[in-house]
């Protein structure tokens, strides 16, 4: 009796292949710039000091009770996460038309949001899309949406590889041309993997088209506060849409901005048009959660709720992430400067214009391969890299390597 | 122009019975109220219990400054996965020694069921075959249906299990459903301490079940949420799972550490996979990884670390087994006392099933009207099915509960 005989193997993902190649590489100068964590100067995941402190305290807190939390997670966490995203004074909050669900990381928030949309975006028909994703985007996004039953996925133009920047006009065109009432997945800040974000002016134009075409925004906010070092600025696009009276979903992650990677702290924000819908949508979300993971794990959410709920901790936390962001900005500037000194032609201004964990270099396939094979520097095939993985020890080597990749003849 | 609302017609989902029960209990002001619906362990003081070994290991973790704070691997913490599978299958399991056992760390038992279900929907009985019947016991944990249905299975059916008249296992019904099930049907089996009936097949009965399942090519999916909690002995509670493995079955076993570690809120689960050989296993795990990636990306570390440290340290492991026995013993004591009191009161009917049943739950046999009486008149909260959680009983309330059952049985038809 053979149950699994015909199961094919999954080819390893891009990330997995890269990591495997890096692990096999014995070169002393090897550098891995394609990881998912925000690293500090020592090459370890960045954790704001206040978070370490609270975690330590909670680790031995005798008052924490072992009981199943609600399917929606910790109410206090949800409240703080919602306020963080929308601003405490948000109309949507005071009008009580926001549903917040604690999820298993940002991925869990996307999955739950997709499941909710698939069933309830248009209750009168069996809606399957279209959902539009940026080109490029996190490769797992499409897979998550498909798993949730979204049948129609499309892409909107986003990144102009040649200019190493945003192609706003093409983006707007795509939004105008896709079917009305499409769901558009938008990165509020710190776009992965390009690091390119829309300006406030761009967002105003985008939201105008969204309103005109009656599109539904599904925001991704993977690292609020870690892009520009300012939690309000990083959340501005979401708040702007809310101020226009739009309904939206927002998948938040607290992995990067709290250094809670292993704790899987995420949040799905649902801004509804009317308070009367809240209970029904909440009950449907609960029902879905019970079929996914029953209820989320509480440890990390407790930490976030504690920090965000205490004014002194909150200030310390902001200072902590601002420090991390400043280091990254410094790395970006230093990298640009080094490339200039090495005589690298071409513009590197985009390096300092972008924000967040990742940045695009504009290197092509062959150049990326050169980096890995000849210089043992590993970046994503599309030329994007994790800027936080660069530090004072490897900066020169990385800059040199990029320069060599650009100038070596092919 | 106001933007259209995408969600004008969302109906309210029906509340889950057990949560409603808990809510009603909370709002009840009666000083004698008793909650026999709760699905978690309670001490004799009616309080949740943090296992002493858990406190100890929490401190170890908090004091360990060398801990890795990165994302866990997608399939979870390796030490957790392997030690958890050993708990289910036995350290010296031939399947483990033959390197054909793998595991996926999941979000509690529910998460393990979910990942297993998603895999089966994609790769079992052909590709993307959503029509393969999934059989769950009648009755079963109310979430089983929803997890498999939401994973895409169109045909989730009951198999006969509980005989309400004789208050025991309907073995012939069970076996006949096995015989008539289409080949490759998936059967969700409770490894021990059946929820909600507390009635498990005997070893001999399990053997009969296994014989039919092998002959009919049926897929074995164990749900193991109470290992150690049922009899107080880990190995005893794992007998059924290990028997099936010894008979050469390839199985899934969804393990939960919520109850036996008291880690309800850290969502610690493990999907153990027993394949025919290592090559099959490797391919299966690669598919599992993909499924995890699109569900929660990677699992939470805290609970898994805690369990792993405990299971891998002989002293801590011994302490844990002891803590588990403490919980199981209290349940056994409450069972014995409840039966004794009902017999002493001369309550009509037989009450042997109270001590014959095992684990947290007991199907009392009270009918819906009698249950209503208990809830409304006596402020004793139990499920409409007559299911009670033995952990809700304490030395302080057991007399009141026994007397109330007596009243319900003698005055309400």
Automatic annotation (TrEMBL), chain A:
<keyword id="KW-0032">Aminotransferase</keyword>
<dbReference type="InterPro" id="IPR004839">
    <property type="entry name" value="Aminotransferase_I/II_large"/>
</dbReference>
<dbReference type="Pfam" id="PF00155">
    <property type="entry name" value="Aminotran_1_2"/>
</dbReference>
<comment type="subunit">
    <text>Homodimer.</text>
</comment>
<dbReference type="InterPro" id="IPR000796">
    <property type="entry name" value="Asp_trans"/>
</dbReference>
<dbReference type="InterPro" id="IPR015421">
    <property type="entry name" value="PyrdxlP-dep_Trfase_major"/>
</dbReference>
<dbReference type="InterPro" id="IPR015424">
    <property type="entry name" value="PyrdxlP-dep_Trfase"/>
</dbReference>
<protein>
    <recommendedName>
        <fullName>aspartate transaminase</fullName>
        <ecNumber>2.6.1.1</ecNumber>
    </recommendedName>
</protein>
<dbReference type="InterPro" id="IPR015422">
    <property type="entry name" value="PyrdxlP-dep_Trfase_small"/>
</dbReference>
<feature type="domain" description="Aminotransferase class I/classII large">
    <location>
        <begin position="31"/>
        <end position="402"/>
    </location>
</feature>
<keyword id="KW-0663">Pyridoxal phosphate</keyword>
<dbReference type="GO" id="GO:0004069">
    <property type="term" value="F:L-aspartate:2-oxoglutarate aminotransferase activity"/>
</dbReference>
<comment type="similarity">
    <text>Belongs to the class-I pyridoxal-phosphate-dependent aminotransferase family.</text>
</comment>
<dbReference type="GO" id="GO:0006532">
    <property type="term" value="P:aspartate biosynthetic process"/>
</dbReference>
<keyword id="KW-0808">Transferase</keyword>
<dbReference type="GO" id="GO:0030170">
    <property type="term" value="F:pyridoxal phosphate binding"/>
</dbReference>
<dbReference type="GO" id="GO:0005829">
    <property type="term" value="C:cytosol"/>
</dbReference>
TrEMBL record, chain B:
<keyword id="KW-0808">Transferase</keyword>
<dbReference type="GO" id="GO:0004069">
    <property type="term" value="F:L-aspartate:2-oxoglutarate aminotransferase activity"/>
</dbReference>
<dbReference type="InterPro" id="IPR000796">
    <property type="entry name" value="Asp_trans"/>
</dbReference>
<keyword id="KW-0663">Pyridoxal phosphate</keyword>
<protein>
    <recommendedName>
        <fullName>Aspartate aminotransferase</fullName>
        <ecNumber>2.6.1.1</ecNumber>
    </recommendedName>
</protein>
<keyword id="KW-0963">Cytoplasm</keyword>
<dbReference type="GO" id="GO:0030170">
    <property type="term" value="F:pyridoxal phosphate binding"/>
</dbReference>
<dbReference type="GO" id="GO:0047801">
    <property type="term" value="F:L-cysteine transaminase activity"/>
</dbReference>
<comment type="similarity">
    <text>Belongs to the class-I pyridoxal-phosphate-dependent aminotransferase family.</text>
</comment>
<comment type="subunit">
    <text>Homodimer.</text>
</comment>
<dbReference type="InterPro" id="IPR015421">
    <property type="entry name" value="PyrdxlP-dep_Trfase_major"/>
</dbReference>
<dbReference type="InterPro" id="IPR015424">
    <property type="entry name" value="PyrdxlP-dep_Trfase"/>
</dbReference>
<dbReference type="InterPro" id="IPR015422">
    <property type="entry name" value="PyrdxlP-dep_Trfase_small"/>
</dbReference>
<keyword id="KW-0028">Amino-acid biosynthesis</keyword>
<feature type="domain" description="Aminotransferase class I/classII large">
    <location>
        <begin position="32"/>
        <end position="405"/>
    </location>
</feature>
<dbReference type="InterPro" id="IPR004838">
    <property type="entry name" value="NHTrfase_class1_PyrdxlP-BS"/>
</dbReference>
<dbReference type="Pfam" id="PF00155">
    <property type="entry name" value="Aminotran_1_2"/>
</dbReference>
<dbReference type="GO" id="GO:0006532">
    <property type="term" value="P:aspartate biosynthetic process"/>
</dbReference>
<dbReference type="InterPro" id="IPR004839">
    <property type="entry name" value="Aminotransferase_I/II_large"/>
</dbReference>
<dbReference type="GO" id="GO:0005829">
    <property type="term" value="C:cytosol"/>
</dbReference>
<keyword id="KW-0032">Aminotransferase</keyword>
């Amino acid at each position: 009796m053979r149950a699994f005989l015909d199961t094919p193997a999954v080819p390893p993902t891009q990330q997995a292949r890269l990591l495997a190649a890096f692990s096999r590489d014995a070169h002393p100068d090897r550098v891995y710039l394609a990881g998912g964590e925000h690293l500090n100067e020592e090459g370890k995941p960045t954790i704001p000091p206040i978070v370490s402190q609270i975690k330590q305290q909670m680790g031995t807190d005798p008052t924490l009770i072992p009981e199943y939390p609600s399917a929606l997670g910790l109410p206090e966490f949800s409240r703080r996460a919602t306020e963080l995203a929308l601003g405490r004074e948000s109309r949507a909050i005071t009008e009580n038309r926001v549903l917040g669900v604690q999820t298993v990381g940002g991925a869990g928030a996307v999955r739950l949001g997709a499941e909710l949309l698939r069933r309830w975006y248009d209750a009168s028909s069996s809606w399957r899309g279209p959902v539009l994703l940026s080109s490029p985007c996190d490769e797992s996004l499409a897979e998550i949406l498909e798993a949730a039953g979204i049948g129609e996925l499309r892409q909107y133009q986003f990144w102009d590889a040649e200019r190493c920047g945003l192609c706003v006009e093409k983006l707007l065109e795509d939004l105008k041309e896709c079917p009305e009432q499409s769901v558009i997945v938008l990165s509020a800040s710190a776009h992965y993997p390009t690091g390119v974000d829309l300006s406030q002016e761009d967002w105003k134009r985008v939201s105008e088209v969204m309103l005109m075409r009656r599109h539904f925004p599904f925001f991704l906010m993977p690292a609020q506060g870690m892009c520009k070092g300012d939690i309000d600025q990083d959340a501005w696009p979401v708040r702007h849409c809310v101020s226009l009276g739009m309904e939206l979903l927002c998948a938040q992650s607290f992995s990067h901005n709290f250094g809670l990677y292993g704790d899987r702290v995420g949040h799905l924000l649902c801004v509804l048009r009317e308070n009367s819908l809240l209970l029904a949508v909440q009950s449907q979300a609960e029902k879905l959660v019970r079929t996914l993971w029953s209820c989320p794990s509480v440890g990390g959410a407790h930490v976030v709720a504690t920090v965000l709920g205490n004014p002194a901790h909150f200030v310390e936390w902001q200072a902590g992430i601002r420090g991390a962001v400043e280091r990254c900005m410094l790395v970006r500037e230093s990298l640009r400067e080094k490339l200039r000194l090495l005589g690298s032609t071409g513009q590197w201004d985009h390096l300092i214009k972008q924000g967040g964990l990742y940045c695009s270099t504009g290197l092509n396939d062959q150049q990326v391969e050169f980096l890995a094979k000849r210089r043992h520097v590993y970046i994503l095939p599309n030329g994007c890299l994790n800027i936080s993985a660069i530090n004072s020890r490897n900066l020169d080597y990385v800059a040199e390597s990029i320069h060599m990749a650009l100038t070596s003849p092919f | 122009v106001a933007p259209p609302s995408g969600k004008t017609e969302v109906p309210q989902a029906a509340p889950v019975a057990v949560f409603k029960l808990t809510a009603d209990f909370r709002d009840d002001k009666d000083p004698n109220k008793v909650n026999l619906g709760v699905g978690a362990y309670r001490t004799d003081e009616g309080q949740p219990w943090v296992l002493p070994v858990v406190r100890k290991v929490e401190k170890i973790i908090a004091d360990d400054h060398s801990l890795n704070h990165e994302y866990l691997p997608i399939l979870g913490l390796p030490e957790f996965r392997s030690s958890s599978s050993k708990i289910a299958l036995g350290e010296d399991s031939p399947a483990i020694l033959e390197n054909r056992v793998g595991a996926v760390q999941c979000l509690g038992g529910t998460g393990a069921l979910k990942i297993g279900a998603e895999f089966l929907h994609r790769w079992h009985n052909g590709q993307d075959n959503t029509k393969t019947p999934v059989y769950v016991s009648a009755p079963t944990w109310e979430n089983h249906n929803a997890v498999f249905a939401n994973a895409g299975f169109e045909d989730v059916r009951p198999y006969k299990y509980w005989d309400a008249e004789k208050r025991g296992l309907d073995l012939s019904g069970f076996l006949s459903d096995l015989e008539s099930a289409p080949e490759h049907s998936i059967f969700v089996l409770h490894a021990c301490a059946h929820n909600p009936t507390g009635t498990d097949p005997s070893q001999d009965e399990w053997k009969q079940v296994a014989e039919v399942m092998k002959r009919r090519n049926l897929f074995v999916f164990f749900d193991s949420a109470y290992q150690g909690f049922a009899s107080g002995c880990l190995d005893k509670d794992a007998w059924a799972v290990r028997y099936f493995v010894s008979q050469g079955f390839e199985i899934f076993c969804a393990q939960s550490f919520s109850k036996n570690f008291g880690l309800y809120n850290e969502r610690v689960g493990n999907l153990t996979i027993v394949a025919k050989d290592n090559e099959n296993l490797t391919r299966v795990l690669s598919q599992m990884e993909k499924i995890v990636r699109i569900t929660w990306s990677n699992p939470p570390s805290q609970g898994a670390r805690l369990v792993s440290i405990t299971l891998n340290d002989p002293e801590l492991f011994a302490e844990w087994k002891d803590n588990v026995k403490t919980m199981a013993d209290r349940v056994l004591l409450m069972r014995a006392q409840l039966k004794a009191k009902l017999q002493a009161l001369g309550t009509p009917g037989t009450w042997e099933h109270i001590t014959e049943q095992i684990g947290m739950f007991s199907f009392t046999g009270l009918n819906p009207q009698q249950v209503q009486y208990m809830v409304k008149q006596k402020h004793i909260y139990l499920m409409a099915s007559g299911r009670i959680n033995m952990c809700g009983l304490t030395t302080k309330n057991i007399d009141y509960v026994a007397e109330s059952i007596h009243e319900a049985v003698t005055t309400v038809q």
